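A protein record pairs a chain with a discrete description of its three-dimensional fold. The shape at a given residue is found from the number at the same position. Here is what such a record looks like in full:
>
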Amino acid sequence: MKYRLEELVDLKIGRTPPRKEQQWFNQGSDDWKWVSIKDMGVSGRYISETSETISKEAQTKFNIPIVRKGTVILSFKLTVGRVAIVDEDMLTNEAIAQLPINDTNIVRPLYLYYLLKNYKFDQLGSTSSIATAVNSSYLKKMEIEIPDIHEQDRVISILQSLDNELELNREINDNLLQQAQAIYDEICKDCEPVKLESLISIIETGSRPKGGAESEGVPSIGAEKIERFGTYDFSGEKYISEEFFSKLKRGIVLSGDVLLYKDGAYTGKSSMALDGFPHEKCAVNEHVFILRTRENFAQYFLYFTLSSPSIREKIYTLACGKAAQPGLNQQELFSVEAPIPSDDVLQDFDKQVDPLMHAIALNALENLKLSNLRDSLLPKLMSGEIDVDSLDL
């Protein structure tokens, strides 16, 4: 049966307090978690952590609607079509629609989540010549096909089984990273700060052709893709041609390379490439540094050093010191001081965490396969092309 979205949900839209008044943002552990688009899309179905928080005073003053635990949320501005479910009561910004369901006997929250992940939002039309957006009135009027509740439950059980495997792998990777982090913290606790220049041997950045990215070819990693090791958003991938890639002298990603976001709002975020994750063959664009230690003898240590909150803060502060748009050059990165032990300790650290890091890469690649399987099944299940009773997963 067809329904308009407004018949199924009580749609609300979040808000952003004035950015110039910093007292509303990130004030303490008692704040509301505040979801933005960058928090959606890379952490699975559920959002439990956000990159920013909003004070309780701001929530009251600006009447920001509270998103209750279990509510589906949808991005409809800037990046349209990211879907998630909040894992606790939270707030959202004005680019995100909150979709609390009126009657779960008509549509299940998880079914709505999967349906919206499969929805082609470009058919609703754009309201902005600058950034992709969907008018909220169009959103309310969008028509969606909702099967009976028993069919919904069968579809959910199939897709949920794949998502459960994905989330288990993420939890395993979180634990493996925590183990490696604990070893890193232990060896660094009594070390004197030393400039990163003593650790980093090679810094490279890449490029894209003058005409911009291609629709297919060799993946070209931009700054927006730099998260932490084992995490990567494969949606909206950018590419360069095979011909352009073959002529690159710099910026080709190798297994073991550490990647650093070098300019923009999130300068200092870092990641790592290993064992074909995120791609067997790829390059970086001009906004990303590839970093290598001499003979790659301490790549894992370099990654954990750069992902340390205190080092990342130092990098960001340096990047913001000279222009409105943050940017980091080679000499500034070299000048950052970090606790660095002796070469023997560095090599021992890399040997200790080596099996942990390879396991993380393997799980991340397994998750890519599971995601592709889920995403290939999703439209066929939603359209009825595949009979849910015929699947044995």
